[in-house]
Amino acid sequence: MLEIKHLRTLIALRDGGTLVEAAKRLYLTQSALSHQLKDLEDKLGVRLFVRKSKPLRFTRAGLEMLQMADQILPQLRQCELALKKLAGGETGRLHMVIECHSCFEWLMPAINRFRDHWPDVEIDLTTSFHFDPLPALTRGDIDLVITSDPEPDSRIHYRPLFRYQSLLAVSNQHPLSGQAQASATDLASETLIHYPVERKRLDIYQHFLLPAGIEPSANRQTELTLMMIQLVASGRGVACLPNWALQPYLDAKLISALPLGKGIWPTLYAAIRADQQDDSYIKDFLSLSIDTCFEHLQGIEPIRTLK
Fold this sequence. Notes:
InterPro entries: LysR_HTH_N, LysR_subst-bd, MetR_PBP2, WH-like_DNA-bd_sf, WH_DNA-bd_sf
Order of helices and strands: HHHEEHEHEHEEEEHEHEHEEH
Organism: Oceanobacter antarcticus
Protein name: HTH-type transcriptional regulator MetR
Number of strands: 12
Strand content: 15-25%
Distance between the termini: 26 Å
Pfam families: HTH_1 (PF00126), LysR_substrate (PF03466)
Subcellular location: Cytoplasm
Largest sheet: 5 strands, mixed
Oligomer: single chain
Strand order of the largest sheet: 4-3-5-12-6
C-alpha cells in the first residue's frame, strides 16, 4: 500500500539528487533507503527511477508519483497546520535575533512562508552585533535566537538546524589559495576581517585560533558580508565564513576558500525558551526553517533530532 512516507522519500530523492543525499535527509542508511525503494517498486510493479543514472533520472511512473507528492504533501501540511491552529490558538509573538549574520538568504523565505501560515503572529527580526541575545531570550524580551554558540541553560531549548563547514576566504592571488588547508600559524601574519562581535562568538577564534594560541596580526570589522568579500577579494585581509555563505562568490570566482585545519564543522541552532518549545507556531517556524535551509543552501549537513 502506498504511504505518505513513500511520497516524502521520492521528494527527498529528487531534491537530494542521489541515494546518499536522500538517505541523509531522511535520517536513514543508504542500505535502508534502497531496501525501502525496492520494496515499494515490487509492490507497485513498476520501476520508479533508473539505477546508476547521473544525474538521477526518474521513470514515467516515478514522475507521476512525484507530481502526486507535490500536490498531496502541501495539502497534508496545510491540514495539519489548520488542526494545530484550532487546538492551540492562532496568535502569538515571534521576535528573532540572528547571530549568524549570513542567514538572511534562507531565513527571509522561511519568514515569508510562515507569514502565510500564521498571519496573526507578530514577527520582528534583528541582528545581535551589539548585545548578547541569550540573556534577552531567557528574560522574554525576544523569542528565538539563531546561533552557532549554545550556552547550557535549563531555560533554553536548542533545536539543531544543520551542520556547516567554516572556510577561510582569501583572494585568488593569495599564497594560501593554492593550499589544501590553512593552519593556525598561517594566520599569524594576516589581517582577519570579521563581524563586530565578541571573539568567543566567532568560529575561527573559538575552534581554531584560541586553542592554538595564535593571534592574527590585525583585525578589521564590518557588519556587511558583501563588504567582507570585497575586502578579501582586493587583498585587504582574510575572513572566515560558512561554506554556504561563500558558495555564490566561489561560483563567480571572485575569491578562493580552504578548510581550517582538517575541517571545522559547527552546528547552527535555533534557541527558544524551553516553555515554548511545544507552541504550535514555534514548531511550525522551525520546521519551515529547516525545509528552507535545504532548499536554498549548498554544502550543509542534516542533523537527526529526537521527536
